[in-house]
Amino acid sequence: MKAVIPAAGLGTRFLPATKAQPKEMLPVLERPALQYVVEEALAAGVSEVIVVSNDDKPSIREHFSPNVPLFEMLSNKGKTSFADAVAHAGGLPVSIVPQPEPLGLGHAVHCAADAVGADEPFFVLLGDVLVPDNGVLVRMKEVSESHGGASVIAVLRVPREEVSRFGVIDGEPVAGGAVWRVRSLVEKPPCDEAPSELAVFGRYLLTPRVMELLVTTAPGAGGEIQLTDALLALLSEEELYAIEVAPDEGYDTGTLEAWLDTNIRLALRDPALAPVVRAAVGAR
Ligand code: G1P
């Protein structure tokens, strides 16, 4: 099974940090945010990760390629853990496909169609949210298996005044709890028209039919080709399920505030870094 990570955004919210580097490569603690998402996919048993990127992002390709001179220099100096970190990142099974034009999330996913192949289900992971404990994709696989290989998405309950930033589902609960059979979904609805407060969270396990439907998906919200609209079309042919994730399972990095919050929360989970955060806060 393969995973697609769209990484073709402009990173405007992080300027000037993103003037010369992609926002997906901004560090969260010691790793680029994108590396967490790649590792989450691999932890779910994915064999290859396909990053969809615009042509201006060579640093993504370089990060996931071997750097033998750097590895040897660090090894020769006895900096083994850094050498290992360099070898690890360079050895991850990541390939890059270009998205020539920024036509929307659905278009970005379809750019990976040839790399994914037409015979297998595939994951889509959006890079703005990190799931460091890697639990969500595994639960999605289990729900898919127990419903005949159906597509499964993750949803998060958000305050009603925020739903217009997300895809939103209309679903009915399935026995067992925290699982929904999706009846309908809509991309970025006005808050007072949204069918629920269950927002699409950025993790998808999709059947190959979705790639085919993306070919004929017309531009929708914001004039962009939306993955949500392809999933709505899927519903007239196949079942779609949603699992509800807990608020503390996902760590958002999409805004400066969320990125800062995520760094602090992850640092507090690290015994070597937690005292640094506590000392800094205590000093104020
Ligand atoms: C995308 C999806 C949306 C989803 C959101 C999650 O929107 O289109 O359905 O709820 O990611 O972060 P974007 O944030 O790219 O506008």
Concise synopsis of the structure shown:
With 284 residues, the protein is an alpha/beta fold. The protein has helices at residues 33-43, 58-63, 68-76, 80-91, 105-111, 113-116, 136-146, 209-215, 227-234, 256-268, 274-282; strands spanning 2-6, 27-28, 31-32, 48-53, 94-98, 122-125, 129-130, 151-157, 167-173, 179-187, 198-206, 240-244, 251-252.
Can you tell me about this structure?
This protein has a nine-stranded mixed β-sheet, sandwiched between helices. The protein has a two-stranded antiparallel ribbon with strand order 2-3. A two-stranded antiparallel sheet has the order 7-13. It has one domain: Spore Coat Polysaccharide Biosynthesis Protein SpsA, Chain A (Alpha-Beta Complex), CATH 3.90.550. It contains eleven helices and 13 strands. The mean pLDDT is 95. Helix 3 (68-76) packs antiparallel against helix 4, helix 5 (105-111) crosses helix 8 and helix 8 crosses helix 9. Helices cover 34% and strands 23% of the residues. The protein has 284 residues and is of the alpha/beta class. It has helices at 33-43, 58-63, 68-76, 80-91, 105-111, 113-116, 136-146, 209-215, 227-234, 256-268, 274-282; strands spanning 2-6, 27-28, 31-32, 48-53, 94-98, 122-125, 129-130, 151-157, 167-173, 179-187, 198-206, 240-244, 251-252.
